[in-house]
Hints:
Radius of gyration: 22 Å
CATH superfamily of the largest domain: Cytochrome c-like domain
Order of helices and strands: HHHHHHHHHHEHEHH
CATH architecture of the largest domain: Orthogonal Bundle
Mean pLDDT: 95
Low-confidence stretches: 7-12
Distance between the termini: 51 Å
Largest sheet: 2 strands, antiparallel
Number of domains: 2
CATH topology of the largest domain: Cytochrome Bc1 Complex, Chain D, domain 2
Number of helices: 13
Oligomer: single chain
Shape: globular
Strand content: under 5%
Structural class: mainly alpha
Number of strands: 2
Amino acid sequence: MKYLLILSLLFSCTKKPTKEDKELLTEALEYFKPLPDSLIDVNDPVNEAKIFLGKKLYLEKGLSINGQISCNSCHLLDKFGVDGEKTSPGHDGRRGDRNSPTVYNAGLHLAQFWDGRAKDLEEQALGPILNPIEMGMKSEAHVVLLLKSDAEYIRRFNDAFPKEKDPIVYKNVGVAIGAFEKTLLTPSRFDEYLKGDYFALDAREKKGLKTFIEVGCITCHEGAGIGGGQYQKLGLVEEYKTEDKGRFVVTGDEEDMHVFKVPSLRNITKTGPYFHDGHLDSLDDVIKIMAKHQLGAEVSAEQVADIKAFLESLTGELPKF
């Protein structure tokens, strides 16, 4: 009898989704997708070799002119892929004019950099190494010569590119780093929710999700990346003052003036400061400004708090290295 009573109590306490729970999840699935399990087959031996090499290159300070800067200097793997700086210092202390975005989940984006000037991870990885303000290496040939002088790199490149007679070429530096970066996914409670766990989010987070959808944030922030899948003008509805010409610098098209890639909101509570130039420290301010200038909406303090609560659910688990 005691056993039956315990079972009865357990069943009575089992949570069941309400009609509202089911409707919200159905609506959410119209706009969002859970993260894929992987962007690269990590069980393939050649891919495994590329990933190992890519991680080594990602952390390699020798790829900077002063031997002090690596990819990880601005995109820290243990800090959700950012450095927490408004803009990042390069090899000689000079800073660029744009904020360093997180490397996590970047493989889901339609292109790389704030202005989309690199078509993929592989192309993006090569830019900072030769950038005179960032890592400052003199030339592709200089990088290749450096790598060819290291016995371990010779072996690692041969393992990663077994069909190539001369695998240490500059392009393959990007290919290897890109392979590593494709492993940088951060699944969160929101992914569990999208997969059918109604209670992976608490009541406040669900309220925030509903507000996020109703206000119209899903116009830009959608998909598995919850953003990163399109370009938008900063100040779409109401002008937003910025001297940065955005994607216009890449295309020369007037319609791309002040247009930027929509950033991902995954791990957003951990990746400030915000905007392309890192000029905002407060996520609350970001929510209010985006609602006003992108959607023409005035949001209340309660709505801001609710949306922020939902955004907390996008904080994911960092990979273990």
